[in-house]
Amino acid sequence: MKSSLENWLQNRLKEIRFFIKYVKPESVSDVALKAGIAPKRVIKLNQNENLFLSRELLLSLIDEVVNEIDPRVYPKEGEMKLRDSLGRYVGVSSDYITLGNGSDQIIDLILRTFLRKDDIAVSITPTYSMYKWSANHLGIKYLEIPLKDDFSLDVDGILESSNRREGICIICSPNNPTSNQFEPDDVLALIENFPGIVLLDEAYVEFAKESLVGFVKKHENLIVTRTFSKAFGLAGVRIGYAISNPEISTTISEYAQLPYSLNCIALRMPLKVLDVIDTFKESIERLKEEREKLVKRLNTIKSVTAFRSDANFILFTVKKPYEEVFDELLNRGVLVRKIGAVLNLRECLRATVGLPHMNESFIEALTSIS
Ligand SMILES: Cc1ncc(COP(=O)(O)O)c(C=O)c1O
User: Fold this and answer.
1) Is 204 within 8 Å of 176 (Cβ atoms)?
2) pLDDT (tens digit, 9 = 90+) per residue, 251-281?
3) Both 328 and 248 in a single domain?
4) CB 103 within 8 Å of CB 82
5) From the CA of 173, how far away is ligand 1's center (Å)?
6) Rounded to the nearest whole angstrom, what is the distance from the C-alpha of residue 240 to the centroid of ligand 1?
7) What's the domain count of the chain?
8) Whole-angstrom Cα distance, residue 153 to residue 137?
9) CB atoms within 10 A of CB 232
10) Final residue of a domain: which of 228, 258, 275?
11) Which atom of ligand 1 sits closest to the CA of residue 175?
12) Which of 2, 109, 141, 192 has the fewest Cβ atoms nearer than 10 Å?
């Protein structure tokens, strides 16, 4: 009996380990140790968090929330109010909104809910790694269609690759890690011609020119996902949401989502943020100004090419092997993200747009290496 249980368990564990493992990025304490500096001196530019927002402001909003909640009670009360507010923020009615524990969780849920064994998930490459992770866990065929050399969408390539098979087409715009927002007409061509759902991940849209969320009113196969982790500085609180036609959103919310996916703080924080949205918009504008300066400064370093960005991070190439540059930056207390090959560009790294003094240290370190 025991050995059959053990066999079963070992087999399951083996199967699970066959999935793609999410490799967590380096931690601040590891970098501090390596660079021989205090953790608070580490320049953390690897996870696209928004440090332009004042921590004090966010903590004061959390303080207000803490005084309103009763942690003994299951969080459900605030859902309608939150869906209402988010609907107003994006310009749709509340029944278009699905709430989730970060947008990762909603994306995973959408794939889990709609895809069956013979369906496909098709996306672009390079893009955000979690789409492949979720598809892989579901045992779904995941197709990756390279972007064109100018980082635009290969619409025909995506449509042809799916070979008219139904499924989900996942487009990240602005795209992580290339940081560009795709042409609305290209996204629209996918929405109109892909035989299934188009999931448009707009995690970084607040830093970009425009959102395509208005398309959900006309196109019932479009689901847009958004997050409070980036522009609103709440990565640690875990709040994401999806916008889609009410039939899809209510079906997901009522039948597929776990009943208490948002905790009582996450349910209230967006309301506080939206109450003082102008303060947040101001910080986003400051970040965008700093982004333009940073791209220019990076491009003054001879061995560096930085690409224009519609997000809060910048993709850049280096002449030396990217891993070497990454390590040398680490030794100087600067943590960026390893990217590697992007299409025919072999040595790529990604850096979050930090506060001016952080960017200064980053530029100084990179200049001294290159
Ligand atoms: C493109 C993209 N989508 C979604 C997410 C996940 O965001 P969340 O914190 O809402 O799960 C990230 C996080 O880095 C991202 O880069």
Assistant:
1) yes
2) 999 999 999 999 999 999 999 999 999 999 9
3) no
4) no
5) 12
6) 9
7) 2
8) 26
9) 23
10) 275
11) 1
12) 2
